[in-house]
Amino acid sequence: MTSNETTLSGTLDAPPATGDRRRWFALAIVMTAAFMDLVDVTIVNIAIPSIRQEAGASVSQIQWITAGYALAFAAGLITGGRLGDIHGRKRLFLVGIGGFTLASALCGLAANPEMLVAARILQGGMAAMMVPQVLSIVHATFPAHERGKVFGLFGAIVGLGAVSGPLLGALLTEWNLFGLEWRPIFLINLPVGIVGLVLGSRFITESKAPRALKLDLVGVGLVVVGLLLLLYPLTRGEELDWPLWGYVSMAGAPLVFAALVAYERRKGARDGSPLVELSLFKVKSFAAGIAVQTVFGIGLGIFFLVWTLYMQTGLGWSPLRAGLTGVPFSIAVSMAAGLSVQKLVPRFGRKVLQAGALLMAVGVLLYLWEAERYGMGISSWQMALPLVVMGVGMGLIVAPLTDAVLSEVPREHAGSASGLINTVQQMGNALGLGLVSVVFFGVIGDDLRPAQVGPAFVDAFQHALGWVAAVMGVIFLLMFALPKRPAQHMEGADAGVALPVVEEKAPELV
Question: Which end of the chain is more exposed for a tag (fewer CB within 10 A), N or C?
Answer without folding.
Answer: C
